[in-house]
Amino acid sequence: MKTKTLQMTTNVNFDRIARSYRWLEHLTLGSALQRCRTHFMPALLHQRRALVLGDGDGRFLAALLAANPQLHADAVDTSRIMLQLLREHCAAASSTAATRLKTHQVSALTYTPVRACDLIVSHFFLDCLTQPEVDLLIHRLAANLQPGMLWLVSDFRIPPNGMRLPAHIFVRSLYAAFSLLTGLRTTHLPDHVRPFTEARFVRIAHHHSLFGLLTTELWARPIVHPEADPIGYRVEVEAEVNLTQVL
What we know:
The chain has helices spanning 2-10, 21-29, 32-38, 59-67, 80-93, 97-100, 131-142, 164-182, 193-198, 230-246, and strands at residues 49-53, 72-77, 101-105, 119-123, 150-156, 202-209, 214-220. The chain has a 7-stranded mixed beta sheet. The protein has 10 helices and 7 strands. The longest helix is centred in the C-terminal third of the chain and has 19 residues, at 164-182. The protein has a single domain (2-246), classed as Vaccinia Virus protein VP39 (Rossmann fold, 3-Layer(aba) Sandwich), CATH 3.40.50. A hairpin with a 4-residue loop joins strand 6 (202-209) and strand 7. It is α/β, with parallel strands linked by helices. Residues 1-9, 228-239 and 241-247 have low confidence and may be disordered.
């Protein structure tokens, strides 16, 4: 299963749409995706080492490097042109980006971080993966992560309300378009909640936008584990939720 999963990922080619991606995004949803990506930016200003997965042309990472001058980042993407655009956007946003950013043209499913990180970011990336790939990615990275780190996720979702049918049609149309343009084989949104929960992450904050079609979520590896100290675990999580709500 693992060999088949990796083969599916390498067939996707985002180079074809890299230079037009920003305008395609804007024509489709305006600035909604970028607002979703940056919603929890104030909660990331104390992080020092980030692993950024599939950030596309790098507009989020550029904003993060500008907002947090102490942050160093590793950006992972299979697209050579996307990484080139990411470096250009980051250099334009921060004069020190060249010394704080390293890019890696490799599948996130096979990439092994060479440095410990306290932040992982995956904006509109997990929805490009199959369910087995999402399970593999989260469990693989979680095995080497320290308690207290954050994982910021943004993705599409199907809201459980009157927008369910329109959202379902819209998401299916996006998958059809990306299949045609990039060779993407994923056809439906994977569930990231289950593998995060299995890997002992806790969702400490979330925000839905665009009538519930978009979600951005902060997940954390608690320093106190529930089995060891249930009361301390609950207090720690509640304190982090309150912090992100203030931000």
